[in-house]
Amino acid sequence: MQFNDPKNDLMPRIIVCLDVDKGRVVKGTNFKQLRDMGDPIELALAYEAQGADELVFLDISASNERRPTALKLVTDIAKNLSIPFTVGGGLKKLDDVKAFLDAGADKVALNTTAILKPEIINQTAVAYGSQCVVVAIDVDKQGDDLGVYINGGRDRVENQFFSWTKEVAERGAGEILLTAMHKDGTGSGFDTQLTNQVSEQVPVQVIASGGAKNEQHFYDAFKNGADACLAAGMFHSGEYTVGQVKQYLSNKGLKVR
Amino acid sequence: MKKVLIIDTKAGNLFSLQAAIERLGFLSTIEETPSNEQYDAIVIPGQGRFGTVMKNIIANGWDEYLNDARKTNLPIFGICVGMQIFFEASDEDPGIAGLAWFKGQAQALDFPKKPMVGWANLTSNVWPNAKVYFVNSYAVKASEYSIANTTYGEQFCAAVKNGNFIGVQFHPEKSSQQGSEIIAMALNQSLKEGVTDDAV
After folding, report:
1. What's the pLDDT tens digit per position in B176-191?
2. Could you tell me which of A131, A202, A254 has the C-alpha nearest to residue B116?
3. A79–B111: do the CB atoms touch at under 8 Å?
4. 3-class SS letters over A88-126
């Protein structure tokens, strides 16, 4: 996104990510221990009140046997929240995607499934529109090497990063959620260079993710082409409210909601 | 308690919209086909394609129902594609006629990144400084009945009003508190501004 472009009234978005397990919002301290953060609807409403522009619920749908509970939770969120929300994690086939969109999710985030069955991007876009399809891309940058990963960052695939970003847009993705794995948990800010490259080359909105620790990181990402920024930890810890980050951006001359 | 009819055009779920309407203290009913039930306001939601929504409207006889309702004082509120069908046509599905209550047609947005997704500021005397959520690839560029505009590549019509019918290109049910206020104004017909033709 170009700063305060007179031809574009869209404002940079701040998206808060919530990890859901067994109907509760959780925070992973390591792979085995999950800390309970609270009720998804209460937390979602609290973030809406803070000024979050959108929410993403991850792994809400991860396990098949809990599918009916997960769908009911999505409908409850839709009935209570008045900002858009995305669900992602564990959507393996078109029927899963349809079930969650019909349950009230505004968008689905597809990652592993998009790589394994890329036609699901086209199918979802045709059935529900591109605006419902967020393709999440996990990328790890080591030197000049850009590795694309699936299965929660565990497995590298052969897809070339830049051609994959273009392919998902051509197939009908409405947005790309770009998670820089090499930045995740570092607190050193979003990968602004990579965000900028994707944003300039691909004709869809780009959501930067991974590495945010303070308000300036958001400013830097928006300055470098991010249309939206996603963060979790710095908001869940209570270190920052979304409102505080927006105040900072506003003081720096950005139009925010 | 006022009763609101939500027309189900089979283009997306209606949970958020219905909940938003009920939070405002209205009763609401979702109907797939017209009935003789009396309502105090009508909402035409709109996700999906212009052609799909319009075909559904005609197949179920909603066009006749809405054309009759238009002649009364009943508030009619169209959202997104539900607003676009107030116009004559859309470049999204050429050859399919809209309700043609307004002159003009929806055209593809002229901006590199599509669809337009996100919050934008309205230029409007009715809702000054309102920030609302847009999701669209098509929009009507201009209308003499416009009460709010937004720019994405070019300026387009974000809301129209003529007497009892109001249309918005954005999604008030996804626009937090601001959206809720806009829904209340549209359904209570408390919006006095805008153009009103005497002879509809």
Report:
1. 999 999 999 999 986 6
2. A131
3. no
4. ECCCCCHHHHHHHHHCCCCEEEECHHHHHCCHHHHHHHH
Position B196 in a domain: no
Give the count of domains, chain B: 1
| Domain hosting residue B120, numbered range | 3-188
User: In this structure, is residue B42 part of a structural domain?
Assistant: yes
The CA distance from B19 to B21, in Å, is 5
C-beta separation of B159 from B146 below 8 A: yes
Say if residues A73 and A99 touch (Cβ distance below 8 Å): no
Partners of B167 in the β-ladder: B78, B160
CA distance B165 to B188: 11
Q: In Å, how far are B41, B119, B170 from B184, measured between CA atoms?
A: 11, 20, 15
Location of structure tokens 């003081």: A251
Q: How does pLDDT run across A52-94, given as a tens digit for each residue?
A: 999 999 987 666 667 888 999 999 999 999 999 999 988 999 9
- Contact of B16 with chain A, judged by CB distance below 8 Å, is answered with yes
**What residues of chain B, 114 to 133, have a C-beta less than 8 Å from chain A?**
114-121, 131, 133
d(CA B141, CA B157): 6
Element (H, E) at A155: strand A155-157
**Distance separating alpha carbons of residues A144 and B152, to the nearest angstrom:** 35
CB contact under 8 A, B118 and A10: yes
